[in-house]
Amino acid sequence: MYGVMAEFDTAEQLLAAGRRARAAGYRRMDAYAPFPIDGLGEALGFRSNAIPLIGLSGGVVGGLTGYIMQVWIHTSALPINVGGRPLLSWPSFVPVTFELAVLFSALSILGGLFILNGHPEPYHPVFNVAGFARATRDRFFLCIQSDDPRFDEHATRAFLYGLGAREVSDVPE
Amino acid sequence: MAADVEAPFVEHGFGPLLGPEHSYGSITDRVNALVLAPGPRFWWRVGLAVGLVLAMVLFISMTVLVAVGVGVWGVMIPVAWGYAITSFVWWIGIGHAGTLISAILYLLKQQWRTSINRFAEAMTIFAVMQAGLYPLFHLGRPWFFYWLIPYPATMNVWPQFRSPLVWDFFAVSTYFTVSLIFWYLGMVPDLASLRDRAVTRSTQVFYGLLALGWRGSARHWHRYEQGYYLLAALATPLVVSVHSVVSTDFAVAIVPGWHETIFPPYFVAGALFSGFAMVLTITIPLRRAYHLQDFVTDRHLDIIAKFTLVTGLVVDYSYLIEHFIGWYSGNQFELALITNRAFGPDGVWYWVLLFCNVAVTQLLWFKGVRRSPLALFFVSILINVGMWTERFVIVVGSLARDYLPAAWGTFVPTPWDWAFLFGTFGLFTSLMFLFIRTLPIIPAFEMRRLFREMWLGARG
User: Fold this and answer.
1) Burial label, A19 (beta-carbon count in 10 A; 0-12, 13-18, 19+)
2) B193 contacts in A (CB within 8 Å)?
3) CB of A36 within 8 Å of any CB in chain B?
4) Which of A127, B174, B395, B448 is a plausible cystine mate for A103, CB 3.0–4.6 Å?
5) Is the pLDDT of residue A76 over 80?
């Protein structure tokens, strides 16, 4: 069994449920919502700055790649005198440096999201829950996973009902 | 949920951004029904058919151009740039309003952008595709386009990075890639929604593959929002850089009428101006055909019209400064250029552009015009024409009248010039029509979030 899934009607209920589940000591859990809800990640104790860091690194690498490539090409690979300008005429290298910084940063954000979010992942146990399709429409779900140390099938179910869930169902593996 | 709220969506002093009596479910169902409801409408088929016929004209023109050479166009020396570069600048400019709506207004937390950002982004991507075709086929030998990419070739030759044309290659390809990532990433949660609503096996598989297994996990949303916000922050300076780089293609040359420091901001303003006009041209029939007045309300049209007016005024101011500096410089070539633009053999186009971009734009001061979809539609068409004409006057007018009268020439477009131009309209239209029927044209998850924000706001 993967865990136990509670279904809620509103975003406010889900936020409150997430906070209370965390206060009750549950750690291995995830919430599912049809749109991003401010503070939901924090309510579950999830914090991450991985994506901004990946984006920044990508941008720095891209900018350096662009600039060093141009300097190398115009000073050593193919040094051509254009209108008497110095070979290392850095102002004319700025646009391409900028473009490559943006390009690398965007691609690394995309790659970071794919890797950290585990895309593509066509199958996941939560899809087995009847009615979970409404997680992309108008319902809000909280799943406490069976690998949580405090997980107990009956106690956890009762706990979730106590949070005001309209329905609690098992999530088969 | 909507039942316990009284008129929550009317902000003080403005019209609503979302029709009344909506809920999370109804928003989702409306957006999904546009794609999942069976059988395309009659007018959709007619529109797509017209688009495809014109797209065929484009493919034939491309084939002829590759088989015969760029000589099938009216380009020659001195007017080596003709319709191709005019249309390139025009198409790429159109894309810019899409990025402004989707990225800059997202950073500024402008809620009204939500319902129109998806198809504005689609417009960007399809417009950049058309734009890219022109320089590619203008190369003469398009199969050697990869010479623009720096790679260790056996000939040991590298691109010249001091040339704005090389900057242009990097700017446009980066712009296209980043816009595509932004667009696709923005669609993933809505594609998951379509996957979950799809009935037939083939649509389930199609949207299932595109949705990447999205399940709305709080952890995923957290990273997703960070990533999306950062992409918006990257796209914002990018869009300014793209048309600035395009303008340096002209400004770096010493041709009169091109060699001007005002060009980068002037071009960026012109790009946004024509782009907003194109957003109106697309939005107005779309919202009528699909009865989207709940989502794209009269207030949206009003705001877009105001943006068109503001960017239009910046463009008008640029015209003024351009001509003032031409006169103030006392340079005889600049003076000759200005006189020739207005009273030379092709002077009529100058008056057309002034009529469309300066005179017609002023109609947008009037609330009556901004509130009338039909009037706005015609204004937007005229602005589209005016902006194309502006680029034509800049590209062809300057090249045709260089420094030496002995080097002057007259550009005469051939049927293939026209075929290529109307062909790109066709490809653009076809892609737009296919997009409307296969992908979510309104970001349903952002509308659901907007609904909650307004609901919370109404509760106080």
Assistant:
1) middle
2) 34, 136-137
3) yes
4) B174
5) yes
Residues A35 and A61 in one domain: no
- What six digits make up the tokens of A71? 């300097």
Chain A environment of B238 (Cβ under 8 Å):
99, 102
Residue B355 burial by Cβ neighbours in a 10 Å radius (0-12, 13-18, 19+): middle
A140 and A96 assigned to the same domain: no
- The closest alpha carbon to B237, from B159, B184, B162, B174, belongs to B174
Residue of A nearest to B450 (CA): A35
Domain CATH code at residue A144: 3.30.70
Please list every residue in chain B whose beta carbon sits closer than 8 Å to the beta carbon of residue A100. Answer: 170, 174
| Residue B3 clears pLDDT 70, i.e. is over it | no
**Across the interface, do A102 and B174 touch by the CB < 8 Å criterion?**
yes
* Residue A69 and residue A87 in one domain: yes
- Residue A6's φ and ψ, nearest 5 degrees, are -105, 145
pLDDT at residue B23, as a whole number: 84
What are the structural domains, with CATH classification, of chain B?
2-454 (1.20.1630.10)
Q: Are residues A68 and A110 in the same domain?
A: yes
Whether the Cβ atoms of residue B113 and residue B295 lie closer than 8 Å to each other: no
For residue B226, which residues of chain A lie inside 8 Å, CB to CB? 48-49, 51-52
Q: Are residues A88 and A74 in the same domain?
A: yes
Are A87 and A63 in the same domain? yes
Rounded distance, CA A86 to CA A92, Å? 11
What is the reported pTM? Answer: 0.93
Torsions phi, psi for B297 (to 5 deg): -85, 175
Query: Which of A33, A119, A127 minimises the CB distance to B218?
Result: A33
Task: Determine the structural domain holding residue A162 and report its residue range.
Answer: 3-47+124-171
**Domain shared by A60 and A96, yes or no:** yes
Query: Which of A100, A116, A132 is at the close of a domain?
Result: A116
pLDDT of residue B39: 65
Span of A21-25, B66-70, B106-110 with lowest mean pLDDT: B106-110
Question: How confident is the model over B20-45, as a mean pLDDT?
Answer: 83
Which residues of chain B does A114 touch, with a Cβ-Cβ cutoff of 8 Å?
212
Nearest CA in chain B to A32: B217
- Write out chain A residues lying below 8 Å of B30, CB-based: none
Contact B219 A37 (CB under 8 A): no
| Interchain pair B219, A41: CB under 8 A | yes
Q: How many domains does one find in chain A? A: 2
Task: Please tell me whether residues A87 and A105 are part of one structural domain.
Answer: yes
CB contact (8 A) between residue A99 and residue B241: yes
Cβ neighbours for B252, distance < 8 A, ≥ 6 positions apart: B164, B259
| H or E element that contains A143 | strand A140-145
Q: Are A95 and B185 inside 8 Å of each other by CB? A: no
